[in-house]
Amino acid sequence: MERERQDQRLHRRPPRAARLKQPAFAPYVLPFGVFLLFLAIRPILPVPQWARFAIELAVILAISRSVLDKAPSRPFFSILLGIADFLLWVAPEHFYPAWRSLPPFHNSVVGAATATTTEAEKHGIFFLAFRVLMSVVAIPILEELFWRGFLMRWLINRDFRSIPLGTWNIEAFLIVAILFATEHGPYWDVGLLTGFIYNAWMIRTRNLWDCILAHATTNACLAAFVIGGGHWQYWL
Length: 236
Hints:
Blueprint: H1 2-12, H2 16-19, H3 26-41, H4 49-64, H5 75-95, H6 119-122, H7 125-154, H8 170-182, H9 188-205, H10 208-229
Helix pairs in contact: 3-4, 3-7, 4-7, 5-9, 5-10, 7-8, 7-10, 8-9, 9-10
């Protein structure tokens, strides 16, 4: 009789793994959601760079590791693409220094390309180290997970996991690129071109890590450009 009761309880109660199963979108969306949360509360409750990085990395490792189980398929070309994208990013101001002062890039909607890094932070090794880590490690992963790992497929089919990575669809391609551009404020023009480039690279490679590597390379070059050349306006 006791054995029958135990069997009934086992049948009624789902396994622990099933009870803790996370939504399909969680590995792709939650890290980006945490990133947006930090941006939203920054004016009233700024979180130190080291804490932001530690939290983002913890979320990625805890939630997203299962969908990051591959390696780049074209690492050399991904790095080259990232360098080329960096040159594209800084080209407008190099050839026309007043570019970011033009109305499309300096207004109440997109903001202004004004440095937010304080003088103390510019000389703080601890701050700079974690600012670079956030830019080169966490942001490329969380953004590529969301934009090209999730949204580019979800716009094609709400059951996004049934859509292979890098599936071509003109509406999804354009919407993701445009939304990616809006994330970059006064740099929306180069953000839009970058969205096109990363989208196309995802379609070409069908590998999330290739886009992450290209994105990380661009951000690493930009970080060196910011710190080495004092172009702090790129760190909004």
